[in-house]
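MODEL INPUT / OUTPUT PAIR
PAIR INDEX: 1
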Amino acid sequence: MTATVTQTDWLGLVATMGDASVDLLYADPPFNTGQTQTGRAGAYQDAWPDTAAWIAWLRERLAVSLPKIRPTGSVLLHLDWRTSHHARLLLDELLGPDRFVNHLIWSYGLGGSSPRRFARKHDDILWYCLDPNRYWFEPPMVEATSRRMAGRLKKATDVIEIPAINNMATERTGYPTQKPLALLDLLVGACCPPGGLVVDPCCGSGTTLVAAHRLGRRAIGADLNPQAVEITRSRLTEAGTTPGA
């Protein structure tokens, strides 16, 4: 399947797309950590003056993106504890609270802990649809953990337990905040129909596009960072597709 990636921002990508052409918008934007995210293969600035400025930035991008999504399509917005509650209110405003489907928890396990609070070991993924009566969904199946169902599969819950990428993982690119391929395989497979179009406007290391290609979906991605685009192109080439521009 086709996969393209360009060096532009979210607004620039959306401007090139036709209305009602996207089956799944998956966005993993900067989380407004107030820091520069760095890795051996790249870095990006992740800071706004305050939460209101970050929400204004996100509002502008979501508002122009929603008309590009098919009536049967969905939005997956990947965030963390800093802003997920603000973003949910924003999506309620832009789409309507009846378009909310799930608040998914990605429980990743790895990382440090603090003596002053429970360890933060999850991200939030907000799933909204365009039409509550028509959106496409294929329930993902995961390995059962109970003794009674040992060796069998069950439908995934809204808590997704997939480890973060460890330092020795072969899929690690060195780009900061890279998400595991297993997570995007599950999300894309569940929320985008075969042959459908997945768009990731903050594609980073390109995991969404690689997952889409593996699953027989079309994919378009963009990132302002030239290092991210280079890594994404390399991964798509290794995955067996020639990335377009």
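PAIR INDEX: 2
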Amino acid sequence: MDSLKLIILLFFLSSCAKTSYLIEQGFGQMSLLSKAKWNDKVLADEKIKESDKEKIRKIQLYKTWFYKFWERDETRIYSKTTFLEGEAVTWLVIASPFNEVKALKECFPIMGCFPYLGFFKKESALEYIEEHKKKSNYVYMRPVYAYSTLGYFTDTILSSFFYYEDFDLSELIFHELFHTIFFVEDEVELNENLANYFGKELALEYFKLNKLEVDKYHKKLNTQVELNKRVADLVKSYNEHLKTSQITSKNQADEELSNFLEKKFRPEVKKSCEKLKIEEKFCYPLKREWNNASFAAYLTYENKLEKIETLRERKNLDLRAFFNYIQSKYEEYEKSSQKEDFSSFLFSELDITK
């Protein structure tokens, strides 16, 4: 389905409140595609910086290696390059009620529901934020440097990719390409965590790090997972507190949040970083601004990494076999009469499901 047909279809299937958003996003995506140039032409253009060309060549290598690794035919993804006017390609916004840590979902025909919205125009993102503020919701916004359209469009290389060093760039590309071979509708949290996990592991495979380097990387990663788990536990406990506090106004919520951050969250996080031997300047949860929406965003992107790692360890599988296992479980899930989501189905045998 081409860009224009998709926009028209979404226009007729959507409510009036969402039509303008879909049209703006559709034309934003079309703008990216219209500005894209075939990679061979970019590489032959003397006006393009050699450092940018080198990034494109590396991305092409990562892509070829990725599909060869999974024994899949290459797609046309990343066959073109789009140079952006700014550093970020979109702006992601998550909203949450003042009395609960929960990402408010936005649902669309065909595409399903998402716990966030992305905006090509920062001004539109800020307008959306103001709408939620009027409803007394908390909001969180961050720049996005890469994303996948999940096959609705042929994704291009974005100039925002060029800010990444080689290892991180490969991880980014493998993350986005993973979405092209596995995606579960309406389960953003699981999709992002799986892409995060496989992106990291594929980067290790690609660069053929020796055992000492891999062990060092996994030690650092496990330390990060431990910190993430502690942050997630604190957020969940705060959410349980909110549910029983009978908070009726945003002012009350602001006070509760401030007390939690100063008396519980930051002291506990600092203690965890000290225990894990993470220098305070690298103890990232102390650097971020937090509210219900940023807490919800954190849980969306970090909550299941530990479960994925534990599941692979339990099964004692190499990376290919582990992916095949997840695929087989998904096929089993689709054939079953399960009412739970696939994430719960996948992790049902683990003690850490909850």
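PAIR 2 NOTE: The two ends are 40 Å apart (CA to CA).
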